[in-house]
Fold each of these.
Amino acid sequence: LNWLTWTKVMFDLVAVPSGFILAASLRFKLDIFGQVSQAANYKGILAISIPLWIVLFAVSGMYERGTKSAAEELKRTFNGVNMGVVSLIMVSFLAEERDFSRVFTFLAWASCLFTVLSGRLIFNKGVNLMRRHGRLCVPLLVVGLNEEARAIARTLTRNSKIGFKPVGFVAANGELNGTSITRIEGLPVYGSAPNIAGAVDMARAGAVLVASSAVPEDKLARLYRDLQDHDVEVRVSAGLMNIAASRVAVEPLDGLPVLALRKIQLARPQVFTKRLFDILVSGSLLIAFTPLLLIAAAAVKFTSAGPIFYRQIRVGQYGREFRMIKFRTMVENAHEMVTHLKERNEADGLLFKIADDPRVTKVGKFLRRFHIDELPQLINVLVGRMSLVGPRPPLSEEVARYDDWLRGRIKVKPGMTGLWQVNGRHQLSFADYVRYDLFYVENWSVASDLHILWRTLPAILKRAA
């Protein structure tokens, strides 16, 4: 066990007794220390139960290393507390404590669930804060040089709270082919897979993540054997970049690991709920932001020549075109200046963006910083051309260059926000835009929309700061 795991144990050793004290205080109206004779008989039982709870927490997987989603951590904590309460009942029965009431048992369950989850929240916030400053991240080597491997490295670099810091690549067999590639995505390439052990030593890596689409199965087995004598975590991607982890389960098939995929079922009630939510929220926001919209319109009108709104043809659901509406943030002839600025383009693929775009007006910079320029798009959401959450609305010339795979992005309405917004909008490559958009389309749900909306405001404020 590493020291982070022991820290979790220490948090729980505080959280569980705190939950018992809180339950006793509620049950017997005690002071915080519970020094009342009515509860005295419980102290022995609770003292025995506390270490037992820690063991049961370990059994339920609460101390397993590795990255877990918030939902998975909540599930394991819930199961651990449930097991703990069952053990509390059994201990009280064996101790023949007849006065151990059902009311106290329920209060102990609710209080311990609250205190343990609170402890986990504080612990995770502290760890995430340290990881954002480059600490507590495990140095990781990515095996493979293909697009999946690069996407993995970009994702882990952006999302430091996952706990891994990519420090380099190792080429799969045949990927170098005599070439002298030394850096990819700004990271060094430490040779090829047959020398994986040496690469781990050179990079001082604590983990290896294999892009399965780059490494054949027979080479993967050898790579795994070569790392057996090294103290490193080994992970293998599923090679399913556009499928949510919640839809994938590993099932044994006569000893063979097989990936089972849950089908997507977009029921009509879900689609109706999404549309109703869009109407109610966009309508309410348009009314609430009316004063702000009027002030922004006046600022655009009286500070630079040109129209108040910028309208551009974008492609919506099923390829239907619509006019995107935003407050104008650039000078009037901005589109004519693109040809002179192409050499300064910082984006790749089909995108065009410049960090300090000279075409943006002073008022435009302010509107963009706080995303006020995008508020008129609520009109498109209200009338049904867009949604609050969805893929980034593409240009017509972008769609004209899509292959069959990319056309999956236009199966749903484009959104004012989406996974591309909350995962580092201005730091994303075109490949990452596409990956997030396709992931959203393939795994859409009402719950995912609510989660993205919940993350959007902090993402905007973080970029505005």
Amino acid sequence: MPTEPVSIAQTVVFGVAFDPKNSERVARMDLNELFASVGRLFDLLEEREIDYVLVGGIAMLLYVEGRNTQDIDLIVSEEDLKMLPELRIDERNERFVQARLGDLRVDLLLAEKEPFRLVLEQHTAAKPFADRTIPTASEEGLLLLKLFALPSLYRQGQFSKVNIYEGDIAQLITSVGTVGPDTWDALEDSLVESDVAELRKIVAGIEDKIANEGNRFGGEG
């Protein structure tokens, strides 16, 4: 777990600036403006008293060191999204909205849909960041969201993301101990039965790997 408060703006700027794939984009971008856009986003959320929760890579940084991310992920309701006309919407479907505030990418999970509503209402706590305290998903909430996303990532063939998500799941399971029955209940309410069955196999494999890692090289010295 990080020992110093996480700077969200600095994390996003570093994630964008040091990704080689962004070289052309960065050449046209004002990184100072990107930095300021992060603060502006959270100022807008606070000023308009919008009910939201921070999820995704930034939230993971509270529990896992070394995570890299280039955007902000939030759960927010469709109604509250209407109170943020400053966001330019690039793409949307019934569950997700991709938007931008200046050069800052903001990915929104709509709170009217499960399991996002459950995370917003039951798996959120105020967490201190470098310049403000922000409602953030708990480890259990992030674990639920990561598991929920896996079937779609597999179907889309996004295996680099699959590897990242399964690594995150392993670290979260190591922290919380196990995937609890409430998480499985929420997944069963949100996914088809065959997807949940496959997730149970994946989690069992991850838990076996975690258990076996302690025995490598003779276990504890």
Amino acid sequence: MIRCETVYGSLLERHGPQDWWPASDAFEVIVGALLVQRTSWASVEDAIGLLRQHGLLSPDELHRAPLDLVETCIRSVGFHRTKAARLRALAGFVRDLGGVAAFAQVDTPALRRTLLGLEGVGPETADAILLYAFDRPAVVVDEYLRRLVKRLTAAATADTDLRCWVSRDLAGDVDRLNELHALVVAHGRETCSPIPHCSGCVLLTACRTGIGGGSDA
């Protein structure tokens, strides 16, 4: 099976540095990670822009805000009523814990367990928050990564195995874990989409399912 290191290098050469996550502070990353579920980043940017206009990008202000105002601000992301309620609950949790700075003092395994205990926060969201808000060495397993590795190997791979595959080469390297996730998303949108564009893929010669591919790297 192709090494993660090889995938990383090929995608970086093809797409260049992605400079993720686009946010002004850790709390904005947390908000964005929750809002981006089942929607596009462009929709999230619209929602965050409106939250910023209303001064709602702090735990205190977001938790105190009227629910209908939060719903209006994030309408672009879909499921806005559910996400608004979850956002306010999350903001209250962060506030009660002592703010984002208090989160940063918690060790990574405990922080991940805490995040997973919050409504609407699954493994993908928790790991994105760990990686991009708190600079922890987390592996973000999302549909883009699952699709890419499944095509490269011609076999479905469990999320735990995907984490091991990434960690084998990038364990502990926050900067490259950050870049890898962003590159996989960029590649998934541009090339390895649900209907793939194999002719332009930099990983084609190592891909088990791509048209014209199939060798190991």
Amino acid sequence: MQKVAILGASRGLGSCLAKVAAMAGSDVRGFARKAGPAYDRVTYHLADFSNEEGQCAVLENLLSHPVERVFITVGGGPFGPYGQREFKDHLWAWQVTFLFPARVVHALMATGRSCQIILTGSSVAESHGDPGAASYASAKHALHGLHSSLRLENPEWDLRLFSPGYMDTTLLPRNAAVRSVGVWAPEQVAEDLWEWALGPDKGGHRVYQRHPA
């Protein structure tokens, strides 16, 4: 039974992925601020990724109990004019969306043990400006840059970047205008992500359209 870790497993894509991985027979360790839905073979570990204590707890768990695959689906940030939001809100976005994933990758690479690491980007925000979401978009830009740089620096590592489009989750407001254009079902995206993770490493980056065709 392969061992899988999902960082950000309580809701959205991470929660759906936990279900898919468990149904495939994996032993899943989910990390989040709160427990997600109860699935067989999924164990939740509570941790706040925005602070030192929570980050250290996750790293200690991953280093003490190695896994074959690590999915980092966590991310988020404030919405609204950049200068009208408190700076601590932007710091939270950068910490959770970029700095913590970067720290996890660093810690795992430093062990020298081989494991697959999949970061979650965004076809909406990682290569384009996103008005009203500057801190989130800048964090996704940074994640994209980290991935492409480390792929060149460490070609032997199976480090991948999965970049979905708009998804129908609680993270996207019900009145969001983009819903009228179409949004992806997170259950289907999670299945795609799992199948892609099991397949050969061909370029290490999968990018979705922003909206379903």
